[in-house]
Amino acid sequence: ASANIGVVGLAVMGSNLARNLASREGNTVAVYNRSREKTDELIAEHPEAGFVPAFGYREFADSLTTPRTAIIMVKAGAPTDAVIDSLVEVFEPGDIIVDGGNAYFPDTIRREKAVRESGINFVGAGISGGEEGALNGPSIMPGGSDESWVTLGPILRSIAAVAEGEPCVTHVGHDGAGHFVKMVHNGIEYADMQLIAEAYDLIRRGTGKSPAEIADVFAEWNQGELESYLIEITAEVLRQNDAETGLPLVDVILDQAGAKGTGAWTVQTALSLGVPVSGIAEATFARSLSSHPEQREAAADLPGPDEGFAVAAGDVDAFIEDVRLALYASKIVAYSQGFDEIRAGATEYGWNIDLGAISKIWRGGCIIRAQFLNRIADAYAETPDLPLLMAAPYFAEALGRGQAAWRRVVVAAAEAGIPSPAFGSSLSYYDGIRADRLPAALVQGQRDFFGAHTYKRVDKDGTFHTLWSGDRTEIEAVDAH
Ligand code: NBP
């Protein structure tokens, strides 16, 4: 046995992660892939890595020093289960199996429980940053036991991205905590992308600027408080021309957004936890809406506003600044909602998650990396049990500064017939959560009317019901418990 770490699954993610591991001082990496070709190819192309190839699970286990540590990078779902089963057969108590794929966190909870019975540690680790991140430094969100973290921590720290001198990895929490946090990361990514897309659409349709000109706007925004990887790549995409037609590439790309399911998982989970992640939900639904061409065709003749949308020449700069402020405010809402979901998940599943540490490990390596995350880290450093991220002083100030512009943009979009579901729902969330009184009181009245679901009163304790089908007097309801 000569390798301190192994990788199973040598498709693009696994081979890049293996190369990243091998490039770090002190690591010798064992590699295994179900079909031999990928292993042969990797060994041939990267002799410098000093890989220890294995061509069966037994040989793979024998090539690892104990406690054996292996990272699985195969297709999520049944293939991951198959690999785990094979590793459990050849590994021993104390060894560590890491699933670095995009697993759904309930699967990770189930797998951790099952594998633990054999005395082997199982760690579900969310890995963000795509192929490039896997090779040069991803953001890593590991769950699993404290015991496995002792061995795994130094290895993962050695390959993670570095932001402001700190590696972008932390032990998120037990069992499925890492994959849960990775899921919410992806949900926030959906919201962030949709918000940027809405900003682009409004500027384009309101000002008639070309994609290349709007690329300049985004490049400028990237110098300020919106500075982020997603804003940066947006400018690059908008500046790109299609080689074949000479048109802006964004105009020849089919306008139907795909999804691999992590946005939907985030929303489904939020629904069961009762957390309103409306920005993430709208972003996920916006992708679904775009991908129903038959319905879009059927709706194409539905009437829109009578007048076209054109910002007066003299107002263009002010409008673009309004859109920037609306984007920033909506982004604060999306992140606040995402962190709310992590907090609720931690409570539900008994994970001790340090929200400030999560914001820090997202500062590098991952798709939502941004300056902004430092502000989130500051907010949690100041008040670790912050009930609502967006109410922290820094964000409250930004929302206050942006809210008038945000409203103008949402109104302009509605009047112009330009869809802005993420801008609009974020603003509604903002107004809802800060409201003194909500019409939820009426909803309670309706629920009591048709279902005797009872209500509470603002002026005294207890639970009440009005005898709606009788004389409509109010009675104190007996608590079911
Ligand atoms: P894929 O998701 O395309 O999976 C291909 C790998 O799975 C191959 O090595 C294949 O072996 C192996 N495999 C399959 Br399929 N069934 C298997 C089985 N029953 N037993 C053993 N191995 C099996 O690879 P990828 O695109 O590199 O992604 C790997 C993981 O990383 C996935 O979970 C994915 O969701 C995740 N991912 C994350 C990011 C990110 O940004 N974090 C990006 C892309 C992917 P073979 O060569 O023998 O067919």
TrEMBL record:
Membrane-spanning segments: none
Pathway: Carbohydrate degradation; pentose phosphate pathway; D-ribulose 5-phosphate from D-glucose 6-phosphate (oxidative stage): step 3/3
Binding residues for substrate: 102, 128-130, 185-186, 190, 260, 287, 447, 453
Family: Belongs to the 6-phosphogluconate dehydrogenase family.
Record key words, sorted: Gluconate utilization, NADP, Oxidoreductase, Pentose shunt
Species for this entry: Microbacterium pseudoresistens
GO molecular-function term, one example from the UniProt record: NADP binding
Domain 6-phosphogluconate dehydrogenase C-terminal: 178-469
Catalyzed reactions per annotation: 6-phospho-D-gluconate + NADP(+) = D-ribulose 5-phosphate + CO2 + NADPH
Its job: Catalyzes the oxidative decarboxylation of 6-phosphogluconate to ribulose 5-phosphate and CO(2), with concomitant reduction of NADP to NADPH.
PANTHER family to which the protein is assigned, alphabetical: 6-PHOSPHOGLUCONATE DEHYDROGENASE
Active site: 182 (proton acceptor), 189 (proton donor)
Protein name: 6-phosphogluconate dehydrogenase, decarboxylating
Binding-site residues, NADP(+): 9-14, 33-35, 74-76, 102
Superkingdom of the source species: Bacteria
Enzyme class: oxidoreductase
InterPro entries: 6-PGluconate_DH-like_C_sf, 6PGD_dom2, 6PGDH_C, 6PGDH_Gnd/GntZ, 6PGDH_NADP-bd, NAD(P)-bd_dom_sf, Pgluconate_DH
One Pfam family linked to the record: 6PGD
Enzyme Commission no: 1.1.1.44
Assembly mode: Homodimer.
Biological processes annotated in GO: D-gluconate metabolic process; pentose-phosphate shunt
